[in-house]
Amino acid sequence: MPLAGGDRLGRVPRGGTSLPDAVRRLAPGPGGIAYVAGEARDVQAVRRVLVQEAGRDRRAVLTKPFWTPGKKGMD
């Protein structure tokens, strides 16, 4: 199963799985800490899956968006 967060336009390669869908398939339950880093939209989508769907405490989902289209210097 190819895994892709999508290209810069948000498209997933044919036959691929989006990053949020892959996280859903892992079915992580509540508890523990998650660290999510990557393109800003992917980070937001994965955080939504972990907090809203999997029931993780939002304070236990640490995020670091490293880039987003059209922006520089996100550190």
From TrEMBL:
The SIP-like Rossmann fold domain, residue ranges: 13-70
Annotated Pfam families: SIP
Region Disordered, residue ranges: 1-23
Coiled coil: none
InterPro entries: FNR_nucleotide-bd, SIP_rossman_dom
Domain of life where this protein originates: Bacteria
Protein name, UniProt field: SIP-like Rossmann fold domain-containing protein
Protein's organism: Streptomyces tremellae
